[in-house]
Amino acid sequence: MRYAETGFNLEVDLTRGNIEKVATDPKDTELYLGGLGTNAKILWDRVPPEVEAFSPENLLIFAAGLLCGTPAIGCNRTIVTTISPQTKLMAFSMMGGFLAPELKYAGYDKVILRGKSPSLVYLWINNDKVEIRDAAHLKGKGAIETAEIIRKELKQPKAQVAAIGMAGENRVFYASIEQGRSSASRGGIGAVMGDKGVKAIVVRGTQDINVAQPEAFMELTNEVMDYIQFRNDNPIPGVMPILAGLGSPQEMKVHDEKWHTENFNWGNSRTRRKGFWTDEIALEWMETLDNARTRLISCYNCPMTCGATISMPGLPTYMMKCFTKLTYTMAAYSDLDFGLRIAQRATEYGLDGFSAPQVMAFALELLENGILTDDDFPEMPADTEGRFYYLLDKIVRREGIGDILANGTYWAAKEIGNGAEDYAHNNIKKHEQLPLKLSMLNPIYYLMYCTGEKINITQIEGQFPQAPYPKKEHREAFVKDWHQVPDDKFKQYFVDWNPRGENSMPFYPTVDMCCDIVDWQEMMHYIDDALGQCAGLSSFPLKPPYHIHNYPKFISAGAGIEMDEDSLSKAAKRYRTLVRAINIRRGMRRKDETPPENHWKKRFPELEKELLDTYYKFKGWNHDGIPTKASLHELGLDYVGEDFVKRGILTVNEDVPSEEATA
Amino acid sequence: MKSQKTKKTIKTIKIDVDKCNGCRACEMICSAFHAEPKYSSNNPARSRIRIIREPLRDLYIPVYAGEYAVAECAGRDKYTIDGKEYDECSFCRASCPSRDEFKEPDSGLPLKCDMCEGEQEPLCVKWCMHDALLLEEREEEVDEPEPEDEQEELEIGLEALADKYGLEKVKDAMARISKKD
Ligand code: SF4
Ligand code: SF4
Ligand code: SF4
User: Fold this and answer.
1) Could you report the predicted ipTM of this complex, rounded to two decimals?
2) Among B20, B48, B53, B125, which is best to mutate for testing ligand 2, by the most ligand atoms less than 8 A from CB?
3) Residues with Cβ < 8 Å from A54, sequence gap 6 or more?
């Protein structure tokens, strides 16, 4: 018997309309856990680097994490993996909500889509009965609307639906997959779904999920529940509200947006508006949010209520979470009312809330600066808000200039030329980043921005405080009950960290300490992504209920796999390295691992070089960021090393081919 | 069966639909608690509490499994509360032929909330960290025959099977099973 997982994947060949239920190898679970880990293995095995995002050979994998569907609180992530049309690298966006547990209850760990359907279809998974159904009548329909229609036509109010909107259908490079209160947004995975001709995946499951050691598992779960209660009653003092508690950033609860509106940039990530947050605006935005928000809502088996249903007068209801609340508002220099209204339409279209507003602001900047002209925007309204709606519609339909903008700022700038590149200034690895520009280099964040392969800072940061408390006594108080650290040395790192003077940034934490800190932060995200755990109760917040000390026990008691801290860290390192290997094989190198040039005003090139050199070595990667044969061997990934040699990425005797040694 | 005066603890679960966030933790834990062995598996479709959850209409109703009904009822209710229209049968606790609620997914056997016999506190209440479900207990003197629980349960189960498969088939199956033994 398999525990926690079902032991089956659903393989769907869309070209032929063939569906197969395939048993998986338990050995793979031991090596790569599940979710992201086993997705990476499948992608490595089956999608060679020549395969492009919009090729029938590209796979689109929906995976439920290893512990999804068990009683583990907040373990509900669907990890969607494919090749991104925008970055041309591996994309592994995730979504919360209800789909992953439902998939488990239906009897599957993953749905693997390959090929392309000749016409628009949706996949209906009802336990053992799986059908590919016609979706012609859903063409052009909104993502939320689609879910409602399907539930009605199948008479299945309890079915969970993940759907794309028009953006995905038209292969917009930053199209999302929407699932009620959640979405998998980064990397353009919605475009791949559209390219495959799949409008929605619909799941209903009514079967059991087993755990290996019920008593032990429940004890662990009860501890997590108690700790959540404790943390809810004891927010972290001295940090801004969204960092004080657990959960995804509680944007739907928070009224005070001083920090975001005055520290993040407006427009095309350009302008910081100090003094923006006045009493008057605070009152106005509070009213807007209070009137719009019907209810705070949670994902499956989680008490944190990070999402909300939003009903703007005159518009259909939709659901929202996190920072999309402000991205449209700030990109358009507008107010919250506008932001919540346009987000309704953008959610139905199925668009990434980070990239889409930046692309629109970028287009308007190009117009302002004469790189694009009025002729490129026929009949565009004069006001910024009207222009945003105009651009939104053009982009998702790929009409006129929208067709170019639909590829994101990096590719659009290349196509437009004429100096447009300077305006696509906020990308890493061709992907739009948080609109944030700061003054002095932060060495920890430098490493995370460079090497993060989810290419979004929120998906690698967490755990370690973003800044030191001014007073040593506060830092000492903070570390007192900090049992989440993998090693006590992290406590000392923090206690000794001063905001100014000796032991302050950018030279403290030291290069070696930065490596330790970043490695820990990243590892926790990778573990979450394999287990299906929401980062909001784990890798993202300070002092979370899940950590490196209880995770191995969860895996042992849940999945019945012997696991301790060392073997878990090693497994995480194994599939983390495999993700890198996939990207290396696709051409990613050190030159791509750099934050936006203007992210910090004060840069320290020598220090930055030392940071990256040291971190690469620490990770077992060579000077160019390529995992070495020795480190691959240690992780049991010799097959990767052999492939690298065959492709000339590494040489037989040395790890670096001579011509690339100086890259 | 003789009738006698007994002290009985009446347990009421107070449901505040305004506090429900739709997480379905209650469904999950109920099914895990009733698994054999306890907590060895879970499956919300076996739960004795169901969340009717329709976010776009802002409907969130935790409903507990009550009595088994042989036939669906002819007269049904449809409520509108605070401008929100609830579907037919939304508040009904019956395990009834008209719907899938409160039945074991494979056998179709009816499910009924037993208030988590033997536990300090109903599990669904414990797991609802937002207090949408709260337990209230009070003592009452009741004039009641001792119910013969097991027998009653057995009969309800058999009746449901007979409804689903026909009495003859159930009889045949019983005959076959007894032969095997
Ligand atoms: S913490 Fe928030 S985002 Fe995460 S699972 Fe819970 S409700 Fe969902
Ligand atoms: S546990 Fe509570 S909040 Fe969650 S669905 Fe059940 S009743 Fe609602
Ligand atoms: S009280 Fe116990 S049996 Fe009844 S619904 Fe709640 S968890 Fe289930």
Assistant:
1) 0.94
2) B20
3) A85, A171, A191, A192, A195
